[in-house]
Amino acid sequence: MNQRPEVDFVSLMQDEGLPVTEAAIEVELKTAVVAAGSKVSNDSDMSPFWRWVRAAVVTPVHWLVNVLLATHVLPNMFVATASRWALELKAWELNLTPKAAVKAQGEITLTKANPNDASTIAQGAVIQTAPIDGSVYQLRVTAETVIPAGTGSGRVPVEASEAGAAFNLPAGYYNLLPQEIPGIVSAENEPDWLTRLGANEETDEELALRCQNAFTSSGSWHIDDAYRSIIASVAGIRSDNIFFENTGHIQPGTATAFILMDVGPTPTAVISQLNEHIMNQGYHGHGDVLTCQAIPDLPVTMTVSAVLVKNLTPEQTSAALAEVESRIRAAFRETAAHAEMSRARPQSRFSVSKLASEIHQAMSTVESVKIWVNGLVQEDISAAIEQPRLTSLSVESEGDS
């Protein structure tokens, strides 16, 4: 969701009375020539003199106004509209460093075939997901690990094969072994498996939001924006995904920063690192007691009945229903797939009719969608400081039992 304004600087200059068209520039030029005491005796379109003036003066001025000024100089004077190179210069002025891409790290639970045997997991072993919108996400074991005899399962350290927030998937998504691991029958990422967030390289919009926030966090008192700036410096946390709740009392638990992830739940390890950084390493104001927490969940149960186009094969029907489910799960921030789907977020209304409309627009195989939320048909989801999360999702084609 882009929060930066789109500005038409040509229209703004025109509204302020500046000549932006070749005709207007020519009028201004003729007015200036006459005001200087010169007499223009032949100003027809076929005049060799004015044809030369247009080529030598009017056309270059038009380029300077409409190209250089309107698309390069003016936009890059403002954080709201600046291009990357200008944003990085402005970030330097504010002592901000653009955040680089980061690979997710965590621990995967492996279950042994025989608990009485010790199992050695080689460095580089791969655990992956089923395809999600055509992409498979892989984790690699980072160090040779022994799961000792006498235990049915054990956890191994892993790192994503690539950098990106899309790898911060919720529990249960990493469950496939593309190559057999001796003595291991299954793999799973359990709840709170992440120890380090995966993150994309900071986008222009994200960097602009942090630059904007830096202006309001520069005071001597720790207001929300000061803490927002501290928390958003962590890779994988957007400044607009931080929500504050304040009671005004100076005691533990009365000021809270709730952290939302673009993909998946907020890991406990990240919350612990933030609280250690703010409260124990001195990054808090005088007398402040601020606690970082994962955004609370708003449980949502959803049942979907889809009417599909006629004459689909069983395989096509299965694929269509799977895509509907994948799109809904993405809308509730389980995955980074289907970027065109609107995401549910705190302090907002999530429109179920819009969800159905976006499924229609993206899928020609779907003729109609009816959605029940917590047992009520087409019921919108209104969230306070909480993130709507799917606790149950059932997708069937109309007529299925």
From TrEMBL:
InterPro entries: Barrel_Baseplate_J-like (IPR006949)
Chain ranges of the Baseplate protein J-like barrel domain: 108-193
Pfam families, alphabetized: Baseplate_J (PF04865)
Record's protein name: Phage protein
